[in-house]
Target: MBL fold metallo-hydrolase
Amino acid sequence: MTKRKRSPRRPTAAGVIGCVVCGVLLAGASYLIEACGGIGFVPSWEQLATWLGVPVGGPDAADLAEGDATVTFFDVGQGDSVLVASGADTCLIDAGTPDAADSLVAMLYAAGVTELDTMVMTHPHADHLGGMARVLQSIEVETLVTPPLSEDERASAQVAEVLEWADTTGTAVVTAADEMTIAVGDGTLTVLMAGLPEADDVNNESLCLRYSLGDFAFLDTGDAEADAEEALAARCGFGLRCTLFKAGHHGSSTSNSETLLSLVRPE
Model:
């Protein structure tokens, strides 16, 4: 018996409409996940991948060390000091306490740092600027970036010492402003917010910084507390997303608010 050849089935109007509707729904879902993924009932791409058993790639410590940028956290006791390096460029964010100053310089030397393109003071507290005078004495620093400082803050003993050593060593001193950018290698360090305007607490004067290079981003909010974090969140929104986040104010409960963390969502 000869079998009849079946003619190819033509798409029906209902099928075409169904495909269009599916495409629109997928596009809408993609937009929703991109904008709100990980918040409330909306899953992130990473969560979806985990549920579906799809491996998720991302930079780990080795990748960052061998790639175009490195972020190094120095142990300076109850204080902060972070080195961002890319190519031949280096930027030191804060310099720990006075007691850790010599150790910080030794760690910089051990890391191969003999000069700094930029050193940033997030705010004028001793556990962040305490080692800056010693760094200026020991290592050539091209530019010192400070937050907007009041006359009283400039006259305080530790800030005055840092500014005097900057003058002695020929280091340029620049006052940070909102949206100021600093090139570090192929990446950019951006001052997202130069402190909370009219802050009633020195912690809320902290520079909020974001370094970005390709798909990598690092966020450092100094000691900014909840009020400053709210202002930062309102200003930047999802632009705060990052790969790496240094917990604000040494991980204190006065910082790292749910509002901020829901936007940052570090890896």
About this structure: Residues 145 and 174 are 5 Å apart (CA to CA). The chain has one domain: 63-264. Residues 1-8, 45-66 have pLDDT under 50 and may be disordered.
